[in-house]
Amino acid sequence: xxxxxxxxxxxxxxxxxxxxxxxxxxxxxxxxxxxxxxxxxxxxxxxxxxxxxxxxxxxxxxxxxxxxxxxxxxxxxxxxxxxxxxxxxxxxxxxxxxxxxxxxxxxxxxxxxxxxxxxxxxxxxxxxxxxxxxxxxxxxxxxxxxxxxxxxxxxxxxxxxxxxxxxxxxxxxxxxxxxxxxxxxxxxxxxxxxxxxxxxxxxxxxxxxxxxxxxxxxxxxxxxxxxxxxxxxxxxxxxxxxxxxxxxxxxxxxxxxxxxxxxxxxxxxxxxxxxxxxxxxxxxxxxxxxxxxxxxxxxxxxxxxxxxxxxxxxxxxxxxxxxxxxxxxxxxxxxxxxxxxxxxxxxxxxxxxxxxxxxxxxxxxxxxxxxxxxxxxxxxxxxxxxxxxxxxxxxxxxxxxxxxxxxxxxxx
Length: 412
Prior knowledge:
The protein has helices at 6-9, 73-84, 92-96, 181-190, 200-223, 228-237, 272-275, 339-350, 358-362; strands spanning 55-56, 62-63, 125-132, 146-152, 242-246, 251-258, 264-266, 321-322, 328-329. The protein is globular, with a radius of gyration of 26 Å. Strands 3, 4, 5, 6 and 7 form a 5-stranded antiparallel beta sheet that branches. Strands 1-2 form a two-stranded antiparallel ribbon. By secondary structure, it is an alpha+beta fold. 21% of the residues lie in helices and 9% in strands. The protein has 9 helices and 9 strands. The two termini are 20 Å apart.
């Protein structure tokens, strides 16, 4: 239904009346606890009499969750008290490096949501250093601020080149500012392999080094239960170039850049061309009379032949343009998909009726379509008002053209 029709199509009904309350409320029903309904209410004034309850939520139950921070006020106070006494069990070094007990990293997707497209200028690489306030939803909720990672802004996110590392091997040991090797592997495979670094050790060493100082600005504010906006303001006042504030997952993005040497630096976007001046890649050996096998065509997820313009690529099989990396590619800029792979996929799907029922296709179970665990959120979509409808939301459909976790042979 259209939003304007919610109140008509899905007319809300009052919940069935419960039993009359006894002389005193039952244990657990007279207070507000994080991630649980408090007592029933119809206005904020109904909640002030209950322990830890601060307002009447849209669900019709009292809650302890502050609308500004997204955190249970009682839990925030407890967290601040715990952090205040943590010096007896946690070194300052561990706090600065984001390894404090209670900070858990989870596998989650990356992306800039509503942030603007990033222009690298003449810098070879540019991106964002992503810092979590700790106030976000479950996967982003920690006792102290911590680093998420460095994300080169390639493709639809920005004009950064994707420069592959000398060694693509996954990390095998924990970096000082992380506490989850699986999450480090995710960050490396999704972002680090385009960062122009030597290897995963080089990448995470830079992530930890660059994030230490801005995190030290955010940490005392988190201990005082200051808001995400307060943290962003403090960073700006401290001279850090805040590029974007992610209100959904409660993260702050600081702009960073690097030259072809893969050494990342914190810099304002306007300074990229000066701070991280790009250099032309060293010339390779002169080409032989004929290209070697595998170097004369474009394949999905691999570099094609070297190029300096689109015209250099038309002679090679499946190559359609010269990418910012300086290599030919088969990836169409509009669809984000390898043109050759798309044609093959279309041909396969066309003949799929001999092996796939219409029911399977409708249910999204076609071979080759894989679902991955990833976060939810509307990014730049407007706040939705349910009107008098009890429930409202969005049905989310994937085109299949998205980044790896969202890339499938068919829509789902």
